[in-house]
Design a protein that fits this description.
This protein is of the alpha+beta class and 177 residues long. It has 2 domains: 82 residues, Ubiquitin-like (UB roll); 72 residues, [2Fe-2S]-binding domain (DNA polymerase, domain 1). The protein is built from 7 helices and 5 strands, in the order H-E-E-H-E-E-E-H-H-H-H-H. A 5-stranded mixed sheet has the order 2-1-5-3-4. Helix 4 packs across helix 7. It is globular and about 45 Å long. Bound molecules: FE2/S2 (inorganic) cluster (2 copies). The site of one FE2/S2 (inorganic) cluster has 11 residues, from loops.
Length: 177
Amino acid sequence: MPDKPIRHSLPTPVPAVAASAAEKTVPLRINGKAYFHDGDPDMPLLWYLRDVLRLTGTKYACGIGACGACTVLIDDKAQQACMIPVKSVAHRRITTIEGLAGGTLHPLQQAWIAEDAVQCGYCQTGQIMAAADLLKRNPRPSDADIDKISNLCRCGSYPRIRAAIKRAAAATQAPHK
Ligand code: FES
Ligand code: FES
């Protein structure tokens, strides 16, 4: 008489598609809103902002972390979105130029207008985000502190950018008693 077949108790298989989709979903918090990215987790944050969410205020220029045109704030720190995969900023607080202001323009945006800081404008959103990081860390920056911002401006509007940052710093100081 042949041996009875041996039955192995196997765990219930998990549907492969559902498992891989869950692994890929990246929860993001951008300008105070929650998003879930179901695509390539290695997609640069800049692509996600511009091509998926259509937040085109953040600019693409060099794409290699050299110019700062793509600067956004991640937990209030200026970082270059072209160099950051979305998977590395899950659950972090991401702010773009579109989310910098509340109901009115941010003091930096007001100062930028007052100082007429923009020439072609391409680098300027990145400059403003870098300045927002600086003023958070250093509310009274010196010229030397401002000059440490490494964002590039091909139009050379650095003196007006510097003036705008100083104007914004002055506007946000508590009055002396
Ligand atoms: S586009 Fe990101 S640093 Fe130049
Ligand atoms: S204003 Fe033109 S690159 Fe900066």
